[in-house]
Amino acid sequence: MRIPIQLNIINLLLLLFLITTSIVVGVADFDWKNLWQSPKSLELLFISRLPRTAAVILTGAALAVAGMVLQIVMKNRFIAPDMVGAGQSAALGILLMSLFFPAAAPWAKTGVAALAALLGMGLFLLMLRRLPLRQQLLLPLVGLVYGNIIESAVTFIAYETESAQMLAVWFAGDFSAVLAGRYEWLWLTGALALLAYLLADRLTIAGLGRDISIGLGVNYTQMLWLSLMVVAVITSVVVVTVGQIPFIGLVVPNIVTRLAGDRLRHNLPSVALMGANLLLLCDVLGRVLNAPYEIPVSVLFGVLGTGAFLYLLFRKDAAHAA
Predict the structure, then answer these.
(1) Which of helix, strand or coil describes residue 84?
(2) CATH number at residue 38
């Protein structure tokens, strides 16, 4: 119990520091001293800086929790929403809605994107039945290939319909366009992350397998599809609002698990806080490293996530070899 508590305290302190830094850093000058005397500073704070910071925190926390839930249910630590076709399928749903129903409301696009993400993950689950159960490292590799196939199909449709520029927004996660009124759907991801915490015990039992779940009185099929729906909605809302951000759902749960053990209910707060911190750190760095221009947060976290993913793969492989 001590490690999760200490980890949460560290994450909370770091989050407060990063929130303060995120509010201050940017192209436009911001001064705490003249905040209440300057209408421009107040406008900048409430229209741009606070919404952007909240969007980053909600996105990082929700994607990390979605990755943790997916890993528990699918019994594999090397899987994440963007590695089972969820993000790519969501982008396909948004693209089709934009082509055929361009005037559709945001909730309609989000709903279709969530349905597409759910169907994409469902198809991936059907593919898993043909994979050897003991080959844990094979699953994420097949998932990467599967996701790239869907992404290639989406890219082809976008080029054929002259929608490539619009598609780039969904595949490249970026918070530079986040303003008040353009991010509020992300609060739904926070609610779904809270739902995952409330269902943590049942999800843990479902992760033990169908037979054990039935023996303990948990409906395995219901919990499996409920968890997939939570992951699908979180992924689709993030893709619709800020674009796709890779590897958060892979890296953060593995770090927390190594530090605090394998307990879903105790780890979820740490996973959410660390996901928010890492993404907020990358967002701040993206504004600083090439100022006054910005580096998309997906680029920075993609580099970090790729290195962490390779490290986890080789370390796992070395452990098996030993």
Answers:
(1) coil
(2) 1.10.3470.10
Q: Report the distance separating Cα 20 and Cα 182, nearest Å.
A: 22
- The per-residue pLDDT for range 115-142, each reduced to its tens digit, is 999 898 888 888 877 766 556 667 777 8
For residue 226, give the nearest of 108, 101, 72, 92 by alpha carbon. Answer: 72
What is the rounded distance in angstroms from the CA atom of residue 89 to the CA atom of residue 282?
A: 25
The answer to whether the CB of 190 falls within 8 A of the CB of 66 is: no
3-state secondary structure of 244: coil
Number of independent structural domains in the chain: 1
The token pair at 19 is 């929130």
pLDDT at 321: 43
The crossing angle, in degrees rounded to 10, of helices 248-260 and 297-321 is 50
Among candidates 67, 63, 120, which has minimal Cα distance to 91? 120
Which pair of structure tokens corresponds to residue 8?
């949460």
Q: Per the confidence metrics, is the pTM higher than 0.85?
A: yes
Asked whether the beta carbons of 117 and 93 are under 8 A apart, the reply is: yes
Range of the domain at 274: 2-321
Structure tokens at 112: 């279709």
Question: Side chain identity at 262, as an amino acid letter?
Answer: D
CA distance readout (Å), 149 to 21, 120, 142, 277: 39, 11, 11, 31
Q: Are 169 and 43 in contact (CB under 8 A)?
A: no
